[in-house]
Every structure is written in structure tokens, then in C-alpha cells.
Amino acid sequence: MIRVAILDDESKSIRSLVYELEQFASRVEIVAQYTQVEEALIHLKDEKVDCLFLDIEMPGMDGFGFLEKLAPRTFEVVFVTAYSDYAIQAIRERAFDYLLKPVDGEDLDRVLGKLETKKQLNSESGKVLLNTDQELHLIDPGEIIYCQSEGSYSWVFSKSGDKILVSKNLKHLESILPDQLFFRIHHSYLVNVQRINLLDKTHSNVILDAGVSLPLSRLRKKEFLETLKSSLKKG
Q: Where does the HTH LytTR-type domain start and stop, copy by copy (predicted)?
């Protein structure tokens, strides 16, 4: 199932796209619809979606400006516009695809097929792609001990002792790593629950492989314990 969101300042255009998407109800879940750029900027940072269908010409801020404000993004973007003139710029913005209004059902079917293929390949490979400023690393999530926030970047620490500075924030890593394997124990740390050796309740610290000690947020402690228990049962 592909989880999608829509951003378009025209309600009529949203209704039209929703109608077309509903023809593929067994393949698509529409999780959010926005007519205001500001609202979308706030909520899309927390909403887990696979793809955003994004209008280009909007008052106040166009679709390209919106993407700059949102960066780094954790989902694919399909531009939806009445104007073909933006195709080259959409490619430069690394758009997943480009649809002309009114959206044709066959074109939408093609885009959904591409999204499904990419999602399936990512799932079947079992590995995640990590971008640095100069390299691409393909790594097994199970090899990662923990990830640490570094502003808009993140450090990834692996079992082999490697330390990789990834050009994505911690929220992005949280979105691409398996939910059942990783938990955000603190706003600065994402840990592999299978690499936890000890929970220091007195100091609210989590002890990982190689004696790494990381702080556990008081607000996340209850959920963390439940996740840890669930992980132990599955193991």
C-alpha cells in the first residue's frame, strides 16, 4: 500500500486527484490533504508518507520553494501541474515523476506502479542506502548500533567500528530504518534495540555494544520499555 499526501491550493484540483486515486483504492491510502503551504510544512515533517503529490503554482510560495523549506525530505515527490514548462526544473529538483492536470488515469497508474516497484525493491533488499557528501553506502540495518544527530546531518555507528557522517537528519534515518528494529530513545539518538545490553534505570541510560552509554528521554521511557519487551518476545 502506497501512503500519499496532496498539496494544492485549489480544492477542486484536490478533489479531482482524490477521485482518480480512489480508482486505485486497493493500492493507495490518502493520509493527508493540504491547501495551505504553511500547514503542510508543519505536518509533513511528522507524517509518514511514501509520496507527495505537489502542485507547483501556489500563492505565496511555489512547489519548488516549498521543497527547499521542507528539506531534507523523506518521501518521493510527484509534481502535478497544468503547465508543461516546469518539466526540466522538476527533474532538477529530483522529482520522482511529473503529471499534467487534469490527471489521466493511465498516467497515474504508471506512477503508482513505479512507486510500488521502488518500495518493494527497498523492502526486499534488506539494506538501506546512506548518502554522504562524497559516497553512497549500502548497509544492512542489523549492522548499525546507533545513529546520532549532528544538526541536519547524522552519524551512523556500525558493529564493524565504522563511523559514517550521513547527509540526512535523524528523522530521515528513522523513516527508512525498520520500525521493529530501531527506537528513538532521545531527540539526538536512534538505537538498534537488538544491540542493547543493559538499561541503567538509576541514571536513565541505555548501554549498547562496546559499552556505549546513551541517555534515555524520560518522556520516551515507557514506550521504550514496551518496545524492548516486544522485541525480546519476537527474538
A: 128-230
